[in-house]
Amino acid sequence: MQRDFTIKQLVLAALAWWACAALCMWLSVFNGMVSLIWWPNGIAVAVLYLLPYRKWPIFLAMGLVVASIDNWIFTMPPVRAVGIAIANFAEVAVVAWLGRHIMRGKHGRLLGLKTMFALVGAGLAGGLTSTSIMAMVDMTASTWIGIIWWCSAVTLGTLVATPLVLMAIEQIMGGRKVFTHEAKGNRPFREVALTTLLVFAISIVVFEQAAVQLLFLPMAATIFATIRYGHIGATVSVLAISVASGVESFGGNSPAAFLHLGQLESAVLLQAYMMVLLSTSVPLAALLMAHDRLAARLRHRHARMRENLSWLGLAEETARIGRWRYNHRTNSRDWSRQMFLIYGLEPNSSGDPGDTKNLHPDGGKELYDLLDHHAQDKARYSFEYPIRTPRGEDRILKMHAMNEFDDTGERISTFGVVMDVTDHHQRQDLLDKERTRAMRLAAEAQYLAQTDPLTGLANRRRTMSQLEKCIEQCEGEGRPLALIAFDIDHFKQVNDTYGHQVGDDVLVRVAEISRGEVRASDLIGRTGGEEFVWLLPGAQSAEAENAADRLCRAIAENSSVGGLPKVTASIGFAMWKKGDTASSLLGKADAALYEAKGAGRNRVQKAA
To answer: Measured between alpha carbons, how far is 444 from 421 in angstroms, rounded to an integer?
Structure first.
């Protein structure tokens, strides 16, 4: 994560580098102490790592100025002072650039061994860069042992100091806790500090005595700190060892009493020891972190799995869904609790219900035949089958099943999910009955809405609607259409003489006679009290006239059957002509009807 430092913050960072460098050089030049780690570079690398590239030149320029001044103060010639400063900040720039490309903004988190080795390689690359420049600047004064010491010091400074400085900057500028970056770093600061002091104390004891080499003790303490605190534990342990060796070298002494060599030679050996220690503990930290991440993911997945299983169990109980699995290799079955309950059985701990053929009306033949039929199906399949519970209840179950195959294509097992759909079928049957009844009632209502309740003939609305449809066909297809209008002669006298009930009976009798005269394609409707209309689609004029004559004779001859008074009918008919509407055609037929009445009744008259 980049941080856009202000100029003031950059100046403070450069001064922090200068203060740390001045302290290290003062201890080295005036107090004879040898520094195994060049700490200032850790500050500079951390700042560059966080700083946007556009501000790198500003900080590097500040660093070169303060470093050159610092080197000159501590008795270096101006050229050498500037050259050493360039060597320092070249190493800083190389390490920061490589580190950003390796970590890709995820500072403070070692993602694995590959990342760790890449970072160590970045530190070595920076150290070699700095050492090469330093050797060229101070060729006459440089020795091979001094070059090795310099390279090791700047490399260790980058690898050890940079992570600590990064976390400190994050705490100061971002308000984050220092020890939360590592998988094992969630430890109180005091606990980590006490461990660091313990490693320091052990290292002091080991470096002070000359009788026995006990370097395995700081190593053991470092491994313990690494296991407990992760990467931060390894870093602070190496820090403690370097500080202990520096304290021992105070006054020009050897950094380790058991090393009977010169101060610089002993320092190089201890640097190699710390390199090995760091290169051992940091990969261990990376592995532990990876292990912890994996364990955390497994715990999370286990918790989610248990949660999902709980939800699945709740869903199964709510929806009454059962699960089963049959292993074809071992011929064993495993039923869920809900599966037992669906079959009306008591659940058992083994999950095997035993022989259930007696719960199937046909002994299980239908079920097993269906399963065998789908034995080679790779996709999910489903079907329904009946059972009869031990209580004698007939149930219908729906099964969704899926086969599992091995690499050779052999079926290993079959999984199934079963749901009781008996209530659904009952509701569906009831719904079908209600739908049929509703359709029947709707048909009856429609029939009643279109039928004259007394005669059973079509009412005026239906008659006029049918007439309009017939006219549309005539206009579209050119088919002929005849319309016969008739009413009962002197019907008012019938009502006045015999009463309305007899009048209604006469209307019914006339309707029956009319119905006997029509063709299958015709329609007769009652359009008024004693008025009727007969539609004859496709009929020519002669055919319509013959039909009207037959109807006139039939009414006159048969109306008195059953003791009813004899009545006659006057009839008028009209043929559709282009341009006629339903009203105009009916009007022409009515006009012909009244002409028939005017001519003496009981006769047929064609419209003009």
So the answer is: 34
